[in-house]
# Entry
Amino acid sequence: MPVGTAATVKGLTPADLRGAQTQIVLANTYHLWLRPGRETIETAGGIHRFMGWDRPILTDSGGFQVFSLESRRRLDDDGVTFASHLDGSEHRFTPENIVEFQQAIGSDVAMLLDVCVKLPATREEIAKAVHLTTAWARRSAALPSKAGTLLFAIAQGGLDAKLRERSARELVELDFPGYAIGGLSVGESREEMYATARATAALLPEDKPRYLMGVGTVTDLVASIDGGCDLFDCVYPTRCGRNGRAMTHGGELNLFNAAFTRDYDRLDELCDCYTCANFSRAYLAHLFRAKEMLGPRLLSYHNVYFVNDLMREARAAIDAGRWRNYAARDSNCSPC
Amino acid sequence: MPVGTAATVKGLTPADLRGAQTQIVLANTYHLWLRPGRETIETAGGIHRFMGWDRPILTDSGGFQVFSLESRRRLDDDGVTFASHLDGSEHRFTPENIVEFQQAIGSDVAMLLDVCVKLPATREEIAKAVHLTTAWARRSAALPSKAGTLLFAIAQGGLDAKLRERSARELVELDFPGYAIGGLSVGESREEMYATARATAALLPEDKPRYLMGVGTVTDLVASIDGGCDLFDCVYPTRCGRNGRAMTHGGELNLFNAAFTRDYDRLDELCDCYTCANFSRAYLAHLFRAKEMLGPRLLSYHNVYFVNDLMREARAAIDAGRWRNYAARDSNCSPC
# Structure
């Protein structure tokens, strides 16, 4: 899922997203709650109409964002109160109002409010986050459902195998249509992340989506698919795109490198996207050096296309029983 | 002509430009000379291949930009020496090397190097600029021609009717394929600009393009078409687009006005462009408030489409003998 935090994947239109083979985009409840706010999106006819995207939209609950605020939020057993990063105004998220918000704006997949712990943390802190996350999930499960909006729960537990297991088991008992693995890709080592994601995914139902949040690079995606995860979101492709970093079959390229100013080859020899089909590395390098906004746009498009293509190829490889070969080939791509 | 100074119309792809009904774009010799430089564009296969645009490209000579540098340039009878605004490096433009550069990169229309005077100026200063502009045009006319590149001369003369007449007559004697009216839209009053453009256009051949440089707004375009001008360039549509100003059939709108955050109407009731067909004013207002780059992109697209549509309608109205009616209707649109 390309990330469209504020109801827009940075620099790309819905037509671009389709062209780049996007099946679903992510938007963020924390950001949409603050701006433009529920009323604007509801009056516009919902999030799909508002942003002009008629394929699925998953909205993150904003838990991750609120807990990132640290000194600007107060957690209690019933929810979390925080100060807006935009204007300092006070807001409160509860397991109930977060689901209601996402239902009201017409999300296809609404993430439950979870409690994210910044790592490293004590076992006690992580255990408390797991406890509250389950309690909140139970309250969310008891809410009236709304046709068209599926609720996904988020398993927590840091890097603690026992707590991860407890969180996954308790949430699975509540029988949600899908599950996410949260609280990873937040600074731990690659090996810790892969091991925890793999172990948690194994505890989640195989017939429901298993969504690893905040991942990622080609290497991370391939390792996590191998670990049993199905769904991913990350700002990585668009953020790299805005900053001159191209994800290619030959590894990542920094278009600010002087060599590219005289490199008339296509950006990625094996890519058929609009950017690769129409522009040379030299032209893209020129755009970034001249700080022209077409550079970030064309490169974001390519990177989103590239990751969607990777996922398409991964599905095909799994279907054809040749996943091991595919994974061995692609995990050579070096990350940023 | 939408302005693509550095071989890119800001934020728009060649596919967008076609979608927005663009027939020809402008690029700038001053900027391309400094970055990426002649060799890069030549090696890429010319300016069309480099920027991925296969319709006509007119390149301005850079005279206007160089003379804007003021203290950073030295004019002599043979050319002008200046310091780059990018790195202070010294460069020299002559009537010859400017034409050769534009021929080398494959411009369809190459503007001659002219001498632009900042207004207000003394009659003597303007007379000297006219004298040099003609002398330089004579030297340019004597150069070997290159198939595919047409040379357009630029008439100068400030707001002085006699000097404008002298400049136009001297250049017309040299029999170029097209003529521009330069040195206007630089701070003089609307009435002075209209009167001078009209008087100069009347001295230029009716069967050749008469290009009024640096115009403009809807009001200026309609008045200048009425005055006999055929071709225009201006950063206005894209600059307004980047800054939240929409050119519409109902006049210009500033999308930062609070009212638009709850306005679910289409941007321009009478426009069929991608932006108007897919997004509300509320969504566009949200993008600008959230500083999302999709806002400048969508609004630049609309504004370019809008101006191209105006020109298309103007041509149709002239062809159908109903120009007077059309001009009377459209000149009500208030400029920025």
Remarks:
- The first strand of chain A starts at residue 25 and ends at 28.
- Chain A touches chain B at residues 6-8, 10-15, 35-36, 40, 43-45, 50-52, 261-262, 264, 274, 278-280, 282-283, 286-287, 289-290, 292-294, 296-298 (CB under 8 Å).
- Chain A has a mean pLDDT of 96.
- The radius of gyration of chain A is 20 Å.
